[in-house]
Design goal:
Distance between the termini: 22 Å
Helix content: 10-25%
Number of strands: 14
Number of domains: 1
Strand content: 15-25%
CATH superfamily: Alpha/Beta hydrolase fold, catalytic domain
CATH class: Alpha Beta
Strand order of the largest sheet: 2-3-5-4-8-9-13-14
CATH topology: Rossmann fold
Order of helices and strands: EHEEEHEEHEHEHEEEEHEHHEHH
Number of helices: 10
């Protein structure tokens, strides 16, 4: 399902969703003893948990992988593509990993796909103040961030810091080094993990030569805009409240979406992490450079059809409801649809980027990524 290009600053956004049912929520569960006995292409376990040294003596970054080395295939062939699933706020990399495994299995792609889920660690003392501690706990020598700094690309803690976006670049390079057969890497993020990826696209390093890099952004709580405009629903040329355009299967009804600079009621709406004002020098690029990188990247958007209200399963209490975030829309689906409209109107019209709406899913990585609707986005045909 896609959004057609906008004409000028406004256009009609008509979406018809499929049958809906409530999805489950992100959860944090340590790998079970039963899972530990399964091979790495079936479940997360300590045997599947690898680490590597980040550049500049910044510490180690760990990740789950569906293969232990280039010679341990699930179906006897070297992987040509990798699906890297970025965890959300709970930092439950094991659950993100298993969602990626289910997606690859159901697509019939475990034979040629390496599934990976990195873990951005928070130290034990800081983790006690996070919503969840993360799974598994940090090890001595790990690069450490605070509860939310990793999703904004902030530098790690300690004497030799590395930015979270740069650490992700290093992971891509490490995967290519360990599995030189890789031809493409799809970075897929859900919820806060999607925020991290979407914010980091414009600041990412070039991938290793010959490696195709793709991004799949699924259900983030807020978005990075590269212009000061924000979406405003309209009907008949008049501004209306978001609720007037419906939700779920009904959104956006007969509303169109105007892109305009909001009034001064929300100062700072265009500052980082909602816009490109006041960028940290540690990110390594200015706003114009980041915009150009984002516009040129291969990006796809996913949204759960039921992630469009405060109902059970949407995890509305943890949704960013700051003034700057609410200017992007009231709920995750609305924010994603609006951002795709902005992208196609002002950011990268030539890319004709699509938003795929997943029927039956609320805010649940285990529902969205393994869905039939997401399959073609996560596992495209080889070029």
């Amino acid at each position: 399902m896609s959004l057609r290009p906008l004409a000028g600053a406004a256009a009609a956004l008509a979406l018809a969703f499929g049958a809906l049912q409530v999805g489950a929520a992100d959860a944090q569960d340590a790998p079970s003893a039963a899972a530990a006995a399964l091979p790495c292409d079936q479940a997360a376990s300590s045997a599947c948990f690898a680490g590597f040294a980040l550049p500049g003596a910044a510490g180690r970054l760990h990740y789950y992988a569906s293969r232990s080395d280039a010679g341990s295939p699930g179906a006897g062939q070297a992987p040509t593509t990798a699906l890297v699933v970025m965890h959300g706020h709970p930092r439950d990399a094991n659950r993100s990993f298993e969602a990626g495994l289910r997606a690859a299995r159901q697509a019939g792609r475990l034979g040629d796909t390496l599934v990976v889920a990195p873990l951005f660690q928070v130290g034990d003392a800081d983790a006690a103040r996070c919503r969840t501690r993360g799974v598994p706990a940090a090890e001595p020598g790990d690069a450490l961030w605070t509860c939310g700094s990793w999703l904004e690309g902030a530098p790690s803690l300690g004497a030799q810091p590395i930015g979270a976006f740069a650490a992700l670049d290093a992971l891509v390079a490490e995967l290519h080094r360990r599995w030189p057969s890789l031809q493409s890497v799809t970075l897929a993020g859900f919820s806060a993990g999607a925020q991290m990826l979407q914010h980091g696209v414009g600041f990412a390093a070039d991938p290793p030569a010959g490696l195709r890099l793709r991004y799949v952004i699924a259900d983030p709580g807020s978005w990075l805009y590269f212009d000061p405009v924000r979406p405003q629903p309209q009907r008949g040329g008049q501004a209306v409240d978001w609720a007037a355009c419906g939700s779920g299967a009904a959104f956006p009804g007969d509303c169109s979406m105007a892109l305009q600079v909001p009034d001064a009621a929300c100062p700072g709406h265009d500052q980082w992490k909602y816009g490109t004002g006041a960028l940290s020098p540690s990110l390594g690029r200015n706003a114009a450079q980041a915009r150009a990188r984002y516009a040129a990247a291969e990006i796809h958007y996913l949204e759960g059809a039921l992630d469009s209200s405060a109902d059970k399963g949407t995890y509305y209490p943890i949704l960013d409801k700051s003034c700057a975030a609410m200017l992007q829309g009231p709920y995750r689906l609305q924010r994603g649809v609006a951002y795709a409209a902005y992208d196609r109107a002002l950011l990268a019209p030539a890319q004709a980027r699509q938003v795929t709406v997943v029927p039956g899913c609320a805010h649940d990585v285990g529902c969205v990524l393994p869905s039939d609707a997401a399959r073609g986005v996560l596992f495209p045909a080889p070029r």
